[in-house]
Amino acid sequence: MSKKIILTGDRPTGKLHIGHYVGSLRRRVELQNSGLYDKIFVFEADAQALTDNIDNPEKVRQNVIEVALDYLAAGLDPSKTTLFIQSQIPELCELSFYFMDMVSVSRLQRNPTVKTEIQMRGFNGESIPVGFFTYPISQAADIAMFKATTVPAGDDQEPMLEQCREIVRRFNNIYGETLVEPNILLPDNAACLRLPGTDGKAKMSKSLGNCIYLSDSADEVNKKVKTMYTDPLHLQVSDPGHLEGNTVFTYLDAFSTDEQVARITGDYATLQEMKDHYTRGGLGDVKCKKLLMEVLQETLEPIRQRRAEYEKDIPAVYEILRKGCEVAREEACKTMDEVRRAMKINYFDDRALIEEQARRFQK
Ligand code: TRP
């Protein structure tokens, strides 16, 4: 039976927030602990982060350790999951180089994620850095190198996965079955697909100042929840409230279980009961926020504690990453040997080639 391999990662451009947690981290930890996978790789895409931060290398450098701490704090366990850093695996460049021959410029231009990112960053026309424009190719190499079957990621990564499958298919067609076509594993709860910021805006982002970080203290979290966006039409407690776009309820959908709702409120058996009361009128925002604070607290406190433990020995965290890079590199070398053999560029190992050439020239 073929192996089930997970690979996923993040650009280390900032500390991870609770959007990352419900969107991907929590799932990764579950997958890690499910015992259903033969290998799990989680990596920091620092080289990818540099594709549009080339003038700000310090940002990436500082965040490599932050993200590693967030990973470990969230429950990724280095004895089960290989944690590594993209730039330390030079074989990824090599595979990307060959993959570049399998993608056209127009195909890259059609990648919707790259399209929006180019707009967001204000690159126009041909001012786009080549490395940035071609990062989907490098990302395909990240995935194919480790023969990942499963890539847990948000829906924004769907075009990347599609591009990767195309490249792998093309490679296998030309050179014979060598690489593996991956599948994306999307978050299973709609509220988790893209958690809005505390201001109700579509996305949590550092520049908008609307994030709750995994490393925030309990006080910081409570302060942020207090000022959270709810329903602007819900002025009096007795007014009927609206759930649509109400960030407090979106977060409750993403974080709370009915058991927590029942235990913490004492008034409702399920979140749905509480929602019904809110929409009928007679339930104030303060009460809903109180519940959310407690729920977030229960999720974040164990994460905070694990983070504090790892923060006591930062050199040991770098050591975890170094060891992870070693394991990943071994894997990458194996795949590259197969790739070179398939492409018939393994000249010095190819006895048949050398003998054939010898015969040809002796005639
Ligand atoms: N593009 C991803 C992000 O922006 C990071 C990433 C790089 C990635 N290579 C990957 C994710 C391979 C999954 C698989 O977060």
Structural write-up:
The chain is mainly α. 56% of the residues lie in helices and 6% in strands. It has 17 helices and five strands. It has helices at residues 18-34, 46-50, 57-74, 91-99, 105-109, 112-120, 130-133, 135-145, 158-175, 190-193, 218-226, 247-255, 258-265, 271-280, 285-311, 314-343, 351-362, and strands at residues 5-10, 39-44, 82-85, 150-152, 183-185. Helix 9 (158-175) links the parallel strand 4 (150-152) and strand 5 (183-185). The chain is elongated. The model has no long low-confidence stretch (mean pLDDT 94). It binds tryptophan. Residues 7-11, 45, 48, 139, 142-143, 151, 153, 157 line the site of tryptophan (TRP).
Short description:
This protein is mostly helical and 363 residues long. The protein has helices spanning 18-34, 46-50, 57-74, 91-99, 105-109, 112-120, 130-133, 135-145, 158-175, 190-193, 218-226, 247-255, 258-265, 271-280, 285-311, 314-343, 351-362; strands at residues 5-10, 39-44, 82-85, 150-152, 183-185. The strands form two sheets. A three-stranded parallel beta sheet has the order 1-2-3. It has a two-stranded parallel sheet with strand order 4-5.
Helix/strand structural class: mainly alpha
Principal-axis shape? elongated
Please report which band the strand proportion falls in: under 5%, 5-15%, 15-25%, 25-35%, 35-45% or over 45%: 5-15%
DSSP E strands, number: 5
Radius of gyration: 24 Å
Number of helices: 17
Helix content estimate: 55-70%
The neighbouring-strand order within the major sheet is 1-2-3
Distance between the termini: 48 Å
Q: Secondary-structure element sequence?
A: EHEHHEHHHHHEHEHHHHHHHH
Question: How is the main sheet built?
Answer: 3 strands, parallel
Q: Any ligands, ions or cofactors bound here, and which?
A: tryptophan
Which regions contain 5 or more consecutive residues with pLDDT less than 50?
Answer: none
Mean pLDDT: 94
